[in-house]
Design a protein that fits this description.
Blueprint (H helix, E strand, L loop, with lengths): L1 H11 L1 H21 L3 E11 L19 H11 L2 H7 L6 E7 L7 E8 L2 H25 L9 E7 L4 E3 L1 H45 L18 H20 L26
Antiparallel strand pairs: 1-3, 1-4, 1-5, 2-3
Helix pairs in contact: 1-2, 1-6, 2-6
């Protein structure tokens, strides 16, 4: 029921809907222009086993099993606390995130940096890559891991230049579009309801006035007599002259002979035939 009334209101106020749609499009374009494109750059880091685990195989890549929990702990340490506060610029020009690569079976960490400019993104990535081995060593030192059993990190890959990303622009356009459409629909429904209630109120007042007239209002019977205009007085004088002439020549019945003249002339003379 409410949906049908809503659609009917939108159809009645189609001009408001059209105006709202135009405003929504303009708002979306403005949001796309206002929000700049972000710059993204990535690097991947691998956790290597300690020297004692590679004495027999002499190849650290053959002993990567079981190192995923260590990679998760390092990612958690890099993404919070004092480390993140020290690395992230105070002006908010760039931010980073460290996460384990779930698509890989090995202990691979992906470092992703997003910045407003290419310089900000590349600079923060370099700072994070320098800080990661230090944080990893401190974590192992806190639990008294022997030097011979200490795990290390190695950089696997790094993008040379940041790439533009319009994710923030798309989010801004979606927010503007959804907000504009919602404002158009509910705003049109609100205005339509106000107009309908006003018309219904006016119609009710007119019906009430027709059924119960105001007793203090003067009617036509109570209106004072209007004075005669010059044209009306002239017509009365002409009528008196006509009656006088008709009586003189005997065209009117005798019963009218004794009547006085109407306003505008002298009294009519009596008919001599009656005397």
């Amino acid at each position: 029921m409410y949906l049908s009334e809503l659609l009917a209101g939108l159809a009645r106020r189609w001009w408001l809907v059209a105006t709202g749609l135009v405003a929504t499009v303009a708002l979306s374009v403005f949001a796309y222009i206002l929000v700049p494109a972000e710059q993204e750059i990535h690097a991947s880091v691998l956790v290597l086993p300690p020297e004692t685990a590679t004495e027999e195989a002499h190849n650290p890549f053959l002993a990567l099993n079981g190192l995923q929990p260590a990679a998760d702990v390092l990612a958690r340490a890099m993404n919070g606390g004092e480390v993140q506060e020290d690395l992230t610029p105070t002006d908010g020009s760039a931010e980073y995130e460290v996460a384990r690569d779930v698509t890989s079976s090995g202990p691979v960490l992906i470092v992703g940096v997003t910045g407003r400019t290419e310089q900000a993104a590349a600079g923060l990535l370099d700072a994070v890559l320098v800080r990661m081995p230090e944080v990893f060593a401190d974590l192992q030192a806190d639990v008294d891991v022997p030097r011979s059993s200490t795990m290390t990190l190695t950089q696997v890959a790094r993008e040379t230049e940041p790439t533009a990303s319009n994710k923030s622009q798309v989010r801004a356009v979606l927010v503007a579009a959804v907000g504009g459409l919602a404002a158009t629909i509910f705003g049109t429904n609100l205005i339509d309801g106000l107009i309908l209630r006003r018309r219904a109120h006016q119609a009710g007042r007119r019906r009430q006035a027709s059924q119960h007239p105001d007793p203090t209002r003067p009617t036509q019977a109570d209106s004072p007599a209007q004075p005669r205009t010059p044209a009306l007085r002239r017509d009365v004088d002409n009528a008196d002259a006509t009656v006088t002439s008709a009586i003189a020549v005997g065209d009117l019945p005798r019963q009218f002979a004794g009547m006085p003249r109407v306003r505008g002339g002298a009294d009519l003379p009596e008919d001599s035939s009656d005397t």
